[in-house]
Input
Amino acid sequence: MARQKSPSVELLPDAPLNATLNASQNMLAEHLTQIMHKFGDGLPYERHRVVHETRFYMSQSAEAMLEAGKRLVLLKENEPHGEFIEIVEGQLSLSKRTAQVMMQASLKYLSPKLESKAQALALLGKTKLFELMTEADEELTALAEGGTVAGLTLDDIDRMTSRELRSALRDAREDADAQRRVLADKNGKIDTLATQLEKKSRIAPPPPDVQDEQLRKEITSIAFEAEAMVRGRLYEAFTVLNQHHAALVQTQPHAFMSGLLCQIDNATAYLREEFGLSADPRSDNAPQWLTEPVPDIERPAWMNTSDSESATVDCP
Output
């Protein structure tokens, strides 16, 4: 029996892609091209090779850790989310959090601003690189070029443990936040005073003596803050520096501390010269109010040290 001829089937033309979907695919392809150009070292993407290279660099130094982070970026951008997590946890034996930190470190230290400094910073080790990731690129660039971060040089950080570095960075941030709060509070008080004076002046200008007393109170408060900084924080810093040099059996840093005090003396001398002030508040040319306490301003007891307790410095 002869076979019957199958009926022909008319093929439908290909349906055109949705314009939005087509644009999304083009953007994704362009994004992957940029990732491969930046992190792929000129090689096409191949999962097994990238997994093997990641595992290799993970066993090496901090600099190699950044290379491993580059390859994790490649895996993340090319693999579906679920498969990427399986590779990280199953094939590389990493936690998801560790992989994220490694990728962040790679993106941070291999950025255009820091890429040329990455090798110098990598000498600090992986853990310290992680601790420094929150610092600004400009500060890390300065650190690699011989500057400091939180008052610490590369050598200082190299000698510290990771825990000590974390504590030092935390203390520096807290000090910076405290200084910002003090400055903001002081500026707020000045703005409030200026606003109050402006409002009062619109209704009825205050008598000159009242306005003068208000201004003196505010200026006295600023002067007390400056004095407190010298007698408080600078005193504590000098004490720590002396103890540090004593522990190392080195010459006491008198020249260094004297130089800093000379800067402060020069600043006060500039104010005297700028406003024609006498160096002696008991001078006949000094007004009477200069030697009298300003009303309603409480001076802390610890600031009332005698002249015999103050060190004098001869400045050039």
Summary: DSSP finds twelve helices and no strands in the chain. The two ends are 122 Å apart (CA to CA).
